[in-house]
Amino acid sequence: MQHMVEAPANNEVLENLRLELRRGCLILAVLAELRSERYGYTLRKALAQQGLEIDEGTLYPLLRRLESQGLLASEWREEDKRNKRFYRLSADGKLILKQLSAEWKSINASLNEIL
Amino acid sequence: MKGVFLEHIMELIDRYLQAVKFSLPRAQRDDIIKELRDSILSQIEEKEAALGRQLTKDEQVELLKKLGSPMHLASRYGKQQHVIGATMFPIYWRVLKAALGLAFLVQAGASIAMAAAGKPFIQSLSPLLHYPSVALSVFGWVTVVFAAMDFFGAKIQVSDRWDPRKLPPLVKSDPRKSRFELIARLVIQIIFGVWWLAGLHYQYLIFGPGIALLKFGPVWHSIYPVFVVIVLVDVMFTAVMIARPHWIQGRHVALLVMSALGLVVLYFLINAPEVFVASDPSALQSQELVKSINYGIHIGLMIAAIVNVINIGKEAMRLIGWSFGRASQASVGS
C-alpha cells in the first residue's frame, strides 16, 4: 500500500533536505569565490550573479566560522570612505578548497551516473 | 531636509543594529555590528543608485525585514544549541536568568522575613541555604518547557510579526549593563525595605545596642503607611525599569515620585515635637543627649527638605523638557 504524505509535512521535509544540500555547496562556493579578495557585500553579489543567492544571516556567520577554522584571513580596510572587512582564502583554505573541489567533482560524476 | 531624512534612515538602522547587538556573543559584538552596518548601507546605496532617488521609509523597512528579526539574525552567530534551537535560545537564556534571579529574591526575602519575625538565625537562614536545590528545579522546569516548545514547533513567530518601526529607541549606554545594575539595585532595595519596615516595629534591628539609650518618637509610627508606600513604589519602579530598560523618562518619573514621597515624610518629621525619645525617661542625662540629637536632626531634616524641593523642581523641568522635545520631534516628523 502506498503511503500518502500530507503536503505541508512534505514541504517541510523538502525544505530541510534542500537546506542540507545547499549548506555544503555554499561553503565550497564561498571558498572558491574568495580566491580573490572581497568584502561581504561584493561576495554576496558575486554569488547571486552566478545564481547562488545567499542571505546575510547565512553568509556573515559562515565567513566568521571559516575564518575561525583558519580557512580565511580578513582585514579591515577603508574603501569608498567606509571601513570594510575584506576576506581572502588563507594557505590552509587553498589546500582545503583543492581537496573539496576534487571531492565535489567525484560526487558530481557519480551522481550524474546515478540520476 | 535631506539631512533630516538621512538622520531618519540612520536612526532606523541603528535601532535595528542595537537590537541585534543585544543578543550577540559579547566578544565579537562590535565587529559583527560594524560589518552588518556596512552591508546594510551598501545595499541602500546600490538600491538608491538604481532607482535614482532616496528609499522611502517603507522601502527601508522592507530591506530590514529581509534581513530577518534582530533576534533571529543574532542567533545565526551563536554556537549550535541542541536541546533548544538557535532562534529560541536567546529567549530561553533570558527567561532562565530572570527565573533564577527571582527564585533568589524569593528565598532571600523569606530569610529576611523570618529574621525580622524573630526566628533563630540558623532557622532564618534555611530558605537561603535551600537556594541551590530551588535553582536546580527552576533550571529543570524552564529547560523542559522551552525544549518542549521547540520540539512541538510552538515557536514564537518573531520573524513574521516583527516590524522595524517598533524597535526600541537608541540608548547610549549598554542595555545589558544597565539591566544588571537595575537588578542589583532591586535586590538592595528589597533587602533595605524589609529591614527598614521591620526595624520600625523591632527597633533593635535599626538601633542595635543603642536601643538602651534612644528609640523612635511616636511620629514614626504615625507615618508607617507612608514608608510602606515608599518601599513598594521604589521597588515597583525598579522592576518596571528592568522590564523596560529603554524607558528613559521613567527614571525621571521615579525620582520625581520618590522625592515627593520623601517630602511628605520630611514634613511630618520636621513638625513632630520629638523625632527620637529617650528609652529611659527617668534618666536625665540621656534625655539631655536625645534633646541635642533631635536638635541636630531637625537642622538636617530642614536641609534635606530644601534639597528635595530643588530635586523635585529639576526632575519636573526635565520631564517637561522631554515632553516638549517629543512634541517638537513629532511636528518635525509629520
Structure description:
- The complex is a heterodimer of chains A (115) and B (334).
- The longest helix of chain A has 27 residues, at 7-33.
- Chain A has helices at residues 7-33, 40-49, 56-68, 91-114; strands at residues 38-39, 72-79, 82-89.
- In chain A, strands 1-3-2 form a three-stranded antiparallel beta sheet.
- Residues 1-5 of chain A have low confidence and may be disordered.
- With 115 residues, chain A is α+β, with helices and mostly antiparallel strands.
- By secondary structure, chain B is mostly helical.
- Chain B is built from 14 helices and two strands, in the order ααααααααααβαααβα.
- Chain B has helices at residues 2-22, 29-51, 57-67, 70-75, 89-116, 121-129, 131-151, 158-161, 175-201, 204-207, 218-222, 224-243, 248-271, 284-333; strands at 214-216, 276-278.
- Chain B starts with a helix and ends with a helix.
Name a few traits of the molecule.
heterodimer; A: 115 residues; alpha+beta; Arc Repressor Mutant, subunit A; 3-stranded antiparallel beta sheet; 4 helices; globular; B: 334 residues; mainly alpha; 3 domains; two-stranded antiparallel sheet; 76% helix; elongated; disordered C terminus
Briefly characterize the structure.
The complex is a heterodimer of chains A (115) and B (334). Chain A is an alpha+beta fold and 115 residues long. Chain A is built from four helices and three strands.
What does the secondary structure layout of this molecule look like, with pairings?
The complex is a heterodimer of chains A (115) and B (334).
Chain A (H helix, E strand, L loop, with lengths): L6 H27 L4 E2 H10 L6 H13 L3 E8 L2 E8 L1 H24 L1
Chain B lengths: L1 H21 L6 H23 L5 H11 L2 H6 L13 H28 L4 H9 L1 H21 L6 H4 L13 H27 L2 H4 L6 E3 L1 H5 L1 H20 L4 H24 L4 E3 L5 H50 L1
Antiparallel strand pairs in B: 1-2
